[in-house]
Amino acid sequence: AGLLLVLPVALCNRLAIADPADSHLDALFSLSHLLELAAAAAFLARTLCAAGGGAFTALACFLLPLQQLLPAYFMLTAWGKPPLQEVPELVAAGRPFEVLQLCGLAQVALYVLASAMRLAIALEEKAADAYISI
C-alpha cells in the first residue's frame, strides 16, 4: 500500500543525474528516499502500538535518528545551494530537491518522535512497576 502511495510522487519528482538512457535510476533514487519515509512512519506506529521491548529496541530508537541524520544532511548541503533551493540543471521532473530534502527532515523527525515515545513508555512502565511493588 505504501508503494502505491509513493510511486507516483517518485515518478513526478526526480533528479536528472543518470544518463538519459538510465533515467529510471533517477526515479528509483527518489523512490528509495520516499520508501524510507514510509518506513519511518511505520516505525513510529509500531513504537506507539507495541509497549515494552528489550535493549535492542532501545538501541534502535537511539541509533535510527542518528543514522537518518546523515542522508538528510547530505541532501541539504551537497548541491552547492541553500536548502530547499533547486539546481535547475539537475531537475528532470517536478521538485525533487524540495521533496528529497523535506523527506529527509521528516524521517529524522519521525525517528526522534518514536525515540521520545519509547522513552516515555519505558519511564511509565518503570514507574508502574515501582508502584506495584510497594
What features would you describe in this structure?
The structure is a single chain. This protein is mainly alpha-helical and 134 residues long. 73% of the residues lie in helices and 4% in strands. The protein has 4 helices and 2 strands. Strands 1-2 form a two-stranded antiparallel sheet. The model has no long low-confidence stretch (mean pLDDT 87).
Keywords:
4% strand; mainly alpha; elongated; 2 strands
Strand content: under 5%
> Runs with pLDDT <50, length 5+?
none
Distance between the termini: 47 Å
SS element count, helices:
4
- Name the average pLDDT: 87
What is the string of SSEs from the N terminus onward?
HEHHEH
Decide which structural class fits the backbone.
Answer: mainly alpha
How are the strands ordered across the major sheet?
A: 1-2
* Portion of residues within helices: over 70%
- Radius of gyration of CA atoms, rounded to a whole number: 19 Å
For the largest beta-sheet, the strand count, sense and barrel status come to: 2 strands, antiparallel
- Count of individual beta strands: 2
Overall morphology? elongated
SSE layout:
Layout lengths: L1 H11 L1 E2 L8 H26 L5 H23 L13 E3 L2 H38 L1
Antiparallel strand pairs: 1-2
